[in-house]
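Notes taken during the Thursday session

The instructor put the following on the board and asked us to keep it in front of us for the whole hour. The protein is Reverse transcriptase domain-containing protein. We were told not to look anything up and to reason only from what is written here. First, the residues (299 in total):
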Amino acid sequence: MHPLGIFEAVMIFPHPAGSLRLKVEFFIMNNCTSKHFILVNDYLNMHGIDINNHKDRYFTIGKNKGQKLAFPLEKREINVIRQVKNVNKERFVSDQLIEAQISTELTLEMRKELIETLFQYRGAFASDNEPLGAIKGHEVDIILNVERPYPPLLRRPVYPASPRARETSEIHINELMKLGVLRKSGHNEEVEVTTPVIITWHNDKSRIVGDFRALNTYTIPDRYPITRIHETLTQLSKAKFITSLDALKGFYQSSLTPHARKLLRIIANCGIYEYLRMPFGIKNASSHYQIIMNTIFPN
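Then, after some discussion, the predicted structure tokens were revealed:
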């Protein structure tokens, strides 16, 4: 094991005759934790420190053995554990439960129990900083009603954009590349279909959108029934408890076939990029997602 670094800290041991100051070097290790720290024998012998390690732990300095200086580690350790747990819980509540709507009809005790349960199973909740999942067993494909060579309408140029829109577009593209939703097309790759992108704004929040109207014109539509809201509500009319789940960037968790990826290449001022996951705005996206939901939740 190799340390990431070393730092020196001054430690003070209180004593009626004068506090003892020691400079101690600490090694910073990766993924290591320790309940206790150790002062090696050289330091202890040099400064006459004796540590008695039984249930009433204490230490003495020098010849004054009658002056027992205690350090209540057990209590301190418990407080530290509670403090760390509370800090983690507060961070979980502030970061991941910030938009959660907890019923106002719950008592304070019930609310605490709910937060404790959510915190205990916090690994089940996704966040924006985590990699996106990928639904297995169903890859989205696109079937066109035209053959190659494709019509010129499917190879569209980049749209004119303001400096602000260009900068925002590049930020969104970089974020999608980090999530594994996009990849940049190589300069030697054959590109037959390109879709321009635009930036939309709503309440000072931006979103990148592909203008897939030309591609949708040549896409053969799926014939798959989409769930109607009023039918779902009717089925739930006698339920006492209702649970709803919202997938984080659900469309982006749907993988594409290699053929569909070649048709879902977008063009921006900063280059040509290929979708690796199902984007918003393409024909049949909702039916594909409905098929996935019906497969996962058949009843």
